Amino acid sequence: MALSRGLRCCQRVFSWIPVLIITSVALWSYYAYVFELCLFTLTNTFEKVAYLLVFHVCFVMFSWTYWRSIFTPAASPCKKFQLSYSDKQRYEMEERPDAQKQILVEIAKKLPIFTRAQSGAIRFCDRCQVLKPDRCHHCSVCETCVLKMDHHCPWVNNCVGFSNYKFFLLFLSYSMLYCVFIAATVFQYFLKFWVGDLPNGPAKFHVLFLMFVALMFFVSLMFLFGYHCWLVAKNRSTLEAFSAPVFVSGPDRNGFNVGIRRNLQQVFGENRRLWFIPVFTSQGNGHYFPLKNRSSESHNPLLANEDMWEESDDGSEEGSLGEPNAVISLLLPSS
Fold it and tell me: Which positions fall inside the Palmitoyltransferase DHHC domain (predicted)?
């Protein structure tokens, strides 16, 4: 027991190393650009002020989005998806797998669950003891089920999912902007130091490495950001891109694809003025997502009663599952 706790403690400590690396590179780039380039190398006052203003805007947005990606907790399924005491007793006392599956099917009739396991059974997490909502997966690193899980990112030491996917995308975009701005403004001084037009000194080392590091990070971020833009346009997560979600009718990679405009709104919200600001504006609560099959959606009472799934002002979750349960049970198969 003590050894296991020690290993988990070491794992948590080491998991922060990638974050410390990114933070160290960012702080060094700040020093190199602000002090070594702008204050010690540039001689034109207007150029110096303009560079510093734009740089600090990029740096603040980069830091803000990185902070939100790291410290926004991954959202987990609410209590409605947990087994009640009586259901848990029934499930644990039943030894026959088929009977256990039938118990989960009966419970799932009360919930907006449309995806299945590869075997066709209701997706259930034995570790968290919850029925998994659509697009929810268990993260072995965070040791919890994560709503609309995309992947676990070591560079933010956090699960990227419903609660922080927008922040992660903005972090990638502002990181690219940060690198592009540094590379574009440093390039002429990089050449001057390279050919010897500027005297040797500490600034030469910092400017040369600023150029190389900015280009290196930009190239790697460009491919990653492009891939996630494609995922957003298709309304897929990284996990769904590798393994198609399974519905009652079978696997369908485009099961949640409702058109580019609505796909973007699911992640960034309807207010476009807030799209590029790291505040939470994603639609829904992560437990239910509109389906591509419009005919099914039009008869789904949850679309007309979506507010019933939001937590009440006092933080309680009572009353969220009311009359729609009887209609939902008609939508979901009993076997």
Answer: 122-242
